[in-house]
Amino acid sequence: MRRFRQLLVIVVLVIVAGFGINRVIQRTSANRTPTFQTIRNKVTPSKQINWRAPSEDKAYPNLKSYPHAWLDVNTSKQRVYVRSGNKVLYTMYCSTGTGKENATPHGTYYIQAERGKFFYNQNSGEGAKYWVSWKDHGIYLFHSVPTDKNGNYIESEAKQLGKTAASHGCVRLSVADAKWVYTNVPYGMKVVIH
After folding, report:
1. What number of CA atoms fall less than 13 Å from residue 79's CA on the CB side?
2. What tens digit of pLDDT does each residue of 163-175 get?
3. pTM of this prediction?
4. What residues act catalytically?
5. pLDDT per residue over 36-70, tens digit each?
6. Does residue 132 have a pLDDT over 70?
7. Domain map of the chain by residue range?
8. Does domain 69-193 have CATH number 3.40.718.10?
9. Do residues 91 and 81 make contact, with C-beta atoms less than 8 angstroms apart?
10. 70 touches 55 (CB < 8 A)
11. Which of 90-119 are b and which e, b meaning 16 or more Cβ less than 10 Å from the residue's Cβ?
């Protein structure tokens, strides 16, 4: 009987402790204290990304001041880092290729001569603005979030920017970031995709 009482006391203590922990968890969530989800949001932000605007609130870097700048595309984080050496000058939201068939190729590449203000691909039913080629001369590109054939942005696709891989192999950027890359990133700049 004595062992039964001891076991009963232990069970009661475990149950009481469980309720206490549950209340602490509920309170923590209610107070919006950082949790695993908010820490994880550095990779997949819960805040709405403005796919029309620059990714950061600061000015884009002046590439004339950084002659050895390069683009670092991280496919697992869905980010493009403008770097000078190891220093990050600017971070952009992106969406890279999905699955095996549409994966964005990993490796070291260089910005190619081909670039333009708009394209439309009849096969995929999508186009984009402000495109710059980095592989296979017009096949793999940096470009804006997708558009329809009339140049209207496809919002359902644009809302995936920075959150998940969504492209056919290209690197999608916000409209402002794509325009900056189109206007400022020079021929021959190194692009590393991993």
Report:
1. 16
2. 999 999 999 999 9
3. 0.76
4. 143, 170
5. 333 333 444 456 899 999 999 999 999 999 999 99
6. yes
7. 2-40, 69-193
8. no
9. yes
10. no
11. bbbbbbbbbeeeeebeeeebebbeebeeee
